[in-house]
## 1
Amino acid sequence: MCVSSHRWNQFEAEFGQDNSRKLYIEVFTKNDIELFVRETLERDPGYQGMMEDEGNPIDLLQEIVNASQGVFLWVFLVVRSLLSGITEGDQLVHVLKKPNSLPKDVEEYFKHVLENDIDLKVTRSTFLTCFS
C-alpha cells in the first residue's frame, strides 16, 4: 500500500488505471476542511466585518477548499495568513486572490514565505504551534 497526501505522478502511473486500488484523501477530508474554514473565518470579527461590507463568503470558502487538495496543514496556514491580512487591512479583492496565489505544497509554501518575507510573524508562530 502507498499513501500520499497528494496525487503523485508515480502513483497515478502505477495505480491510476484501476479505481479499486486507490483512494483520494481529499474526498474524505473535504467536509472537515470546509467546516474548519467556515468556523474559523466566521469567528473572526475582521472577516465578519469585511463580509458584511463587501463580500461573498461562499466564494472564499470554496477557493480555499478547492485549492487545498485535502491538505489540512496548508488550509491552516492559508486561513491564518488570510486573517492576518484582513487584520492588517487587506482589501477583499486581495483576500479572494490569496488562496490561489500561494504554493499548494506545504514545503513550497514555507519556502515562498521565507523568500518573500511575507506573513513571517504569522508563519513562525504557526510553525511553532504545529511542531512544538
## 2
Amino acid sequence: MMMLPTCRRRHDRSAAAHFLVLSSLLLMMMMSSTTTAFLTSSGGSISLQQRQRVASAASSSSSFTSLQNAYIDESSFPLHNNRHSPSPSASTTTANKQQSSSRRRPPKVHPQSGGQITLVGSGPGSPSLLTLAAHSLITDPSNYIIVDRLVSDEILQVMDNAGVEYRIANKKPGCQQVAQDEIMEWCKEGLRQGRHVVRLKIGDPFVFGRGGEEVLEFREFGIEPTVIPGVSAAFSAPLLASIPVTHRGISNQVVMCTGYGKNNTCPDLIQYHPEQTVVFLMAVGRLRNLCDSLIQKANYPKDTPVGIVERAGCPEQRTVVGNLMSIADLAERYDVKPPSTIVVGEVVNVLLTEEDFVWDDEVDADNYDEREEMGNMMRRGFHGLVQSVYSSSS
C-alpha cells in the first residue's frame, strides 16, 4: 500500500529534474540567439574582430610550435635552407613571415660525406693566447685547416710541429673577393672528402672577421659550422701595449670600427666625445685618410692621442704613439704593417711614461735640432716608438 506513493514521488522528482534541464537548455539557446542577433545588428564589426583575434592566436600558436620544432635533434634538420628562394609577392608576405620562423638549420655533419666545419678564432697572434679548444683543433693531424693570411708565424709553427695539413689564404688588399671564393672552394673540397675542415681566422671570427658571412656560405653548402670564439685584438692588443680601453674619469665608452666597409668603402665615423675610446681594426692601410676624417668630419681635436699596436702578442710586437696630426707620419717612419690595431682617445697616454719610449735610431745623433724636436714631441704628449711591454711565452 505504501509503495505507490513512494514511486509517485520518485517519478515526480525525475520529471522535475528533466524539466529543469530542458528549461536551462532552452534559456541558453535563447541567450545565444539574442547575443548573436546583437552582434549582427551592430554591423558585424565586433564579430570580425573576434574572428581576427582567433586567427591571430592560432597563428601565434603555430609560430611557437615551429620555434619548438626548430630545436629538435639536428639529425632531423633538412640539408639546405631556402635563403635564396624567389622574392615573395605582396599578397604572400604574411604567409612567408610565418614560414620564416619554421626554417631549420642544416646538420653539423654532412649526411652524404660525413664532413664537418669548425670556424675558429686564433686570437691576436701568440700561441699562448689560443683557447684550449682552438689549440686542440689546429694540432689534430686528421683535420684540414684553411688559414687566414694574417695568422701569425708562431701559430703556423705550432701546426707545423703537429704535422697538420693546412692551406693559407692569399687575401691581400685588392683581391679579397677572389681569395674568399678560393677559401670557400677549399672548404667544399674538404667536405666532399668527408674531412673535418677547420677555418682558422685571426682574432675573433665575429669581430670584423666576416665570420657571419662564412656561416651563411657554409649553410649554402648544406652544413652548419661549429664556432669557437677567439681573443679579439680589439681588446687584447691595447691591453698588451699597456693601453686600457676604459679608465675611470678618462673613458667610459668604447667603440669598435673597421677601416674598410663593404666594397672597400670608408665606414661612417662616430662623432667625438671626450670620454670615448675608438678602436679601429684593419685600418692601418688608410691611416692618413682616417685621421683627416676624424678631424674634419667627426670633430676630433687635432691633438687627440693615437696608439698603433702592431703584431700584438708576438715577439716583434711594436707600439707607435702620436696624435691625429702626427701618427700617420710616425707610422710611415716606422713602416707599420698589418695586423695592427689603432686606438684613439685619451686612454692612450694614461699608463705610458717617457721611460717607455725607445730612442729613434733614424734620428741623426749629430743633428741637435732633430734630437731636440724628437725630445720635445715626447715630452709634450708621448710621440714615437714604445718598447715592447709584452713577452710571448709560446
